[in-house]
Amino acid sequence: MKNTIAKITCSVLSSSVLLISSAAQAFAAYTFGDVNNNGYVDAVDASLILSEYANNATHKGGTFTEEQRKAADVNHDNYVDAVDASYILAYYAYTSTSGTLDLETFVNGSSAATTAPVTTTTTTTTVNTTVDYSKDILGFWELNQQDEENTNNYGLFFTKEGTGGIFDMTSDLFYFSGNDFYVTGSAVSSGSFKEENGTITVDNGKEKLIEMSRIESTDGYLGTYHLYGGVFYNTILNGFKKDRNAGADSVYSVIDFYEEGKSRIVYNNFFTYKLDGNRLTITTNENLTPLFNGAGTVTIIGNTLTMAGGDEAAVFTKVTLPSDEKVLK
């Protein structure tokens, strides 16, 4: 389940590359497999490799630096392709279930090492129709990371209307500080930032990167915005469509600049759900792939939510911000 949720957010996280490609050029050295140089080898790195492979395959040209290419070519065949991405995904699943081999050994070591079985924990999913979690499940739930140093914070949310979505804390990507808009820690120049009648556009001189319209303000530029256009938005939507081979027009994207230096992006109407006792069924929304292949179970104790399906389980912690109701309007 944890890996499933991480996979869903890959297209969200990888789209940030389009906004920070210039910053990537400044990266000095990369750990093997850690393409985005954030200290972790995970599904995000695999997603970036697939994007690079797709760009090269369609003659659009890749954006990786030489150091990124070295980090991405995990099987040392001098190509950055889907094979490398598959190895990284397999390794991510392996380490997520307490695997201890390093990536080099896992991919290129002995046959025994490369075929080391992934240990899974079988989770008993007992259905109990007498409990009522219909109110307890509402709100935002952040996925508990296996590594406490992992700063990629994201999760799920559920609304009383029977819809739900995903959210990602994006303060490292963009935020407001006073009247300045920052992207990856650098203030956007006045010539690239335009605001008119509540609509904000950020461009790089060649194309629009972000188009968003104000929903509700709190102080200055802080508040909630509907993200509806630009390279960032289009990449996200295309990622959703690619992952699910279906339309994603129902997904409503909101950027919440909830305080100075902070932001999160919320994807409303990402799925619908039904809750019968502790049995949770994530249903398709315009053919979007469900989180469960069928139904799973949930257990809520205080601010802790455990979701289980098949042989996977994930634990979430409830998080609240003053703007929660505003972003779900």
Describe it.
With 329 residues, the protein is α+β, with helices and mostly antiparallel strands. The chain has 9 helices and 16 strands. The chain has an 8-stranded antiparallel beta barrel with strand order 1-2-3-12-13-14-15-16. α1 packs across α3, α1 runs antiparallel to α8 and α3 runs antiparallel to α5.
Please tag this protein with its features.
single chain; 329 residues; alpha+beta; 2 domains; eight-stranded antiparallel beta barrel; three-stranded antiparallel sheet; 9 helices; 26% helix; flat
User: What level of helicity do the residues show?
Assistant: 25-40%
* Strand order of the biggest β-sheet: 1-2-3-12-13-14-15-16
Number of DSSP-assigned strands? 16
Averaged pLDDT, please? 75
Instruction: List the helices and strands in order.
Output: HHHHHHHEEEEEEEEEEHEEEEEEH
Query: What is the strand content?
Result: 25-35%
Radius of gyration over all CA atoms, rounded: 20 Å
